[in-house]
Amino acid sequence: MTTIEPRSVWGARPTRGTSHLGSTRGVKAHYTGGRVDPATLTDHAKCRAAVRAIQNQHMDANGWNDIGYSMVACDHAVMIGRGPHVLPAANGPGLNSGHYAILVLVGTSGVTTMTDNMKRNFHAARDYLRQHGAAGTEIKRHRDGYSTDCPGANVSAWVTSGAKLPNGTSPTPEPADEPTKEKDMDYGSFGLSQASARNIPGNAWVSVPMDTEYADPYGNHSGTGESILIGEPSQYVLEAAVELAGVPAGTPVSLRTAEFRYDNSATPPVDRMEEAGWEHTVPLPESGRVQFSAVGHVQDGRKLRVQVYVHGDGTNYKINGARLKYLAQR
């Protein structure tokens, strides 16, 4: 029987914060992308040290809240990373809410091939996430949906050939008559408080920031910023209200949705807009509050935002507040 090691046993640093993840479609397999000491195959203390080093890199170099993986499978045990019902960070922007992330302790040199124990332990990690984290049946690779070599040739071949156990049996499938899970529907609600009002230019599209989460069970928003829904892909019904200050009543104001994708080929990496939705333009009422409804589809890996455009050249325009909610079908 596989040993499941809590964070305290392998020596994890405290997390800086978590985003709740209700459920996923399954798991994605990862490898380290570097050298793994062959001594990890005989000395479990070396495995724990390697995972602590990965956590340090993720927190200190990447600036993440914790190690990016949900679980880690080595030759000896399964170590709990972020664990169940916590949004991972390792799958790539826009892809973390779809799958938990399981690291297999192999790399590009040293240990490069999964052992039979690693295969068993990968499935023990997956079973743990299914039992405790509402993970679905999918077993994917990091490179599925994200441009990367991860999880390397050996782990990739194992996954694409069915991720079979050492005795050649396939993983136990989900019962065919299992009812639809709550994960198929996603509800989100966000706001911008007046305390965080933002100055904006005229005659330019500006993404509406959100500083308050009222509901975000899938971790689409991650606490701050502009993105309010991650496509996996997702169909959505959205309602938004934006309150403006410093804009004369009667000034035309436009609202629209826009989809962005993370571009890590740029230096530094940036979010690039890939597609804009239909514009809705109205004269600004005396209240300064404009409302907007939209029905649409956001593609896999894209981030959905709401944008505002004030048709004027004033210098004292401000987004004074906002409120948004959506219902999405994944």
What structural class do helix, strand and pairing data support?
Answer: alpha+beta
- CATH level 1 class label of the largest domain: Alpha Beta
Low-confidence stretches: 175-183
The main sheet orders its strands as 1-5-4-6-2-8
Mean pLDDT: 89
CATH superfamily of the largest domain: Peptidoglycan recognition protein-like
Percentage of residues in helical conformation: 10-25%
Q: Any idea of the CATH topology of the largest domain?
A: Lysozyme-like
Rg over C-alpha atoms, rounded to the nearest angstrom = 22 Å
Query: What is the N-to-C succession of helices and strands?
Result: EHEEHEEEEHEHEEEEEEEEEEEE
Q: How many individual domains?
A: 2
Let me know the number of strands: 20
The coarse overall form would be elongated
Sketch the major β-sheet.
6 strands, mixed
Corresponding CATH architecture of the largest domain: 3-Layer(aba) Sandwich
Strand content: 35-45%
Number of helices: 4
Distance between the termini: 35 Å
What does this structure look like?
- The protein has 330 residues and is an alpha+beta fold.
- The chain folds into two domains: 4-160, Peptidoglycan recognition protein-like (Lysozyme-like, 3-Layer(aba) Sandwich); 182-329, Jelly Rolls.
- Helices cover 15% and strands 35% of the residues.
- It has helices at 7-10, 44-61, 116-133, 152-160, and strands at residues 4-5, 24-30, 35-36, 71-73, 78-80, 99-104, 109-110, 135-141, 185-192, 198-199, 205-207, 212-215, 229-230, 234-245, 252-263, 270-276, 280-283, 289-298, 303-310, 318-329.
- Strands 1-5-4-6-2-8 form a six-stranded mixed β-sheet.
- The longest helix has 18 residues, at 44-61.
- It starts with a strand and ends with a strand.
- Residues 175-183 have low confidence and may be disordered.
